[in-house]
Amino acid sequence: MPTAVETGAEVLLPTSEDEAVAAFGDGAGVTVLAGGTIVVPEMTYGYLKPQRVLMLAQAGLDGIARDGSRTTIGAMTSVADLTDLPSPLGLCAANVADLEIRAQATVGGNLCAPQGRDAPRGDLQSAFLALDAQVRSVGAGGERTDPVETFLADRAGRLILDVSFEEPAAGAFARLDRPHTHDYSALTVCAARTADGTVRVAVAGVEGPAVRLPSAEAKADDPAAAGAAAVSDATFADDALASAWYRERTLPVLVRRVLTQLQEAA
Amino acid sequence: MKLTVNGVEHEIESAPLTPLLYVLREELGITSPKVGCQQGGCGSCTILVSGEPRRACLLAVAAVDGSEITTLEGLGTAEALSPIQTAFHQHYAAQCGFCTSGMVMAAHAYLENGGGTGRESIQEALAGHVCRCTGYVKILDAVSAAAGGEVASNQRWLPQPGEEAPVEVPGAPA
User: Fold this and answer.
1) Topology match between the domains A10-55 and A67-264
2) Does the CB of B121 have a partner CB in chain A at under 8 Å?
3) B137: alpha, beta or left? (left if phi > 0; alpha if psi -120 to 50)
4) Are B55 and B112 within one domain?
5) Residue in chain A lying closest to B44 (CA)
6) CA-CA to A93 of 20 to 30 Å: which in A185, A188, B79, B136?
7) Do the Cβ atoms of A55 and B16 come within 8 Å?
């Protein structure tokens, strides 16, 4: 039996949202355990030796609510539960890992996922960026609702409650996958167009969390030019799945594809 | 904490963050879930939680406190295999056997959820399962045959009683 999991860490098991918020407090010294697909192996391998673990398994915080054109997704909603939503989020979710992992992994975990050691994490971040989603979280200073872009840049010490967005007029998804024992996406590109014609494009699988591609957005009417421009907006990760060199050369193709899909959806 | 494994209720002593995989193997002596990659990538530890396939290596035991767990030991008996076990036997779908229990559990859930004979949907259901002997074709054949009802559900495969002592399987229902 691995010794890493027998740390005697204090385990907090809230049974409601209110209890979870109270137990999280200002987040200091708390490791949040949602689906466990990241945190549990990190403990098994001894990379993570938590002192206090906030286990959300019984806290609720899950479910998808629709109010007119607005969709709100609880932090503990599984990735599998998103797969029927419109593009880009539904398609992006359907391409995360495999059936068992999608059923266990959560939206909150995906948005909080730190960069992986050997492979990218947080594919859904690109979809939420393209959708201009709002993240509601608690932590020091109380409850806050931020654009996902702001949240990703400053997410330490936050506990996500839910994420919400307006249904886009059109969405598109493309990824660089690789036949591999772990079905990871080396790069995930999502795009969405709002009813007023604003186009947002974002990429996951880069260095750090997912990022918007403003240079590509500015040339959204010309997919090839937008693809070429996108390269300047990202720093490319170099890991076991793909080199930074390869990612840099693939991003223009994926950006061109999603923007072409958006044009065809017009 | 309590777990009901293959219909038998157990009081669990392991620390709450212990992965279910080690609780099953080390505390309860149920060894069909295999210790493969221990990071959710190989599928060899797959068990059913309330009938749905999950990675035992990724579940802290406290997260499934009170759940119904099914392992390979709970599917069939040596005398009466489940349809998917019979199909694996008939189609030579096991080589070294290390991935087999995980494959069988995922395939069993696929059949229970009404999965059909189509290659693509079976591949989707087994996408997270790695066979390093690369015996995938026979595995897909077996699942497809079971989905199509082309296997007997009670095929006898052990020697007749009296010919050989029965095999005791740890964790099998009493």
Assistant:
1) no
2) no
3) alpha
4) no
5) A100
6) B136
7) yes
> By the CB < 8 Å criterion, does B39 face chain A?
yes
As a whole number of angstroms, the distance between CA A143 and CA A112 comes to 17
Q: Do B128 and A101 touch (CB under 8 A)?
A: yes
State which amino acid sits at residue A72: T
| B42 touches A: beta carbon within 8 Å | yes
Instruction: Name the residue range of residue B40's domain.
Output: 2-74
Cα angle at A103 between A171 and A29, to 5 degrees? 95
Lowest mean pLDDT among A3-17, A33-47, A61-75: A3-17
pTM of the model: 0.92
Give me the mean pLDDT over the B134-148 stretch.
96
What pLDDT band is residue A184 in, cutting at 50, 70 and 90? confident
- Shortest distance, CA A199 to any CA of chain B (angstroms): 32
Is A41 in contact with B38 (Cβ distance < 8 A)? yes
Residues of B in contact with A183 (CB under 8 A): 127-128
Class of domain A10-55: alpha beta
The CATH class for the domain spanning A67-264 reads alpha beta
Check whether residue B102 and residue B66 sit in a common domain: no
Task: Please write the tens of the pLDDT for every residue from A14-37.
Answer: 999 999 999 999 999 999 999 999
pLDDT of residue B153: 56
Which of A40, A78, A83, A106 to mutate to probe the B interface, most B CBs <10 Å? A40
Confirm or reject contact between B106 and chain A (CB < 8 A).
yes
pLDDT digits (tens, 9 = 90+) for B56-105: 999 999 999 999 999 999 998 888 889 999 999 999 999 999 999 999 99
- Kindly state whether residues B6 and B70 are assigned to the same domain: yes
Is the CB of B123 inside 8 Å of chain A's CB atoms? no
Angstrom distance (rounded) from CA A130 to CA A193: 8
Instruction: Give φ, ψ of B104 to 5 degrees.
Output: -65, -40
Query: Domain end: B47, B74, B101, which one?
Result: B74
pLDDT score at A3 = 42
How far is A223 from chain B, CA to nearest CA, in Å?
Answer: 32
Name the B residues in 55-74 with CB < 8 Å from any A CB: 55, 57-60, 62-64
Give the number of beta-carbon pairs within 8 Å between A and B: 94
Domain count, chain B: 2
In a domain, B137, yes or no: yes
Pair of tokens at residue B160: 């007749």
Cα–Cα distance between A150 and A162 in angstroms, integer? 15
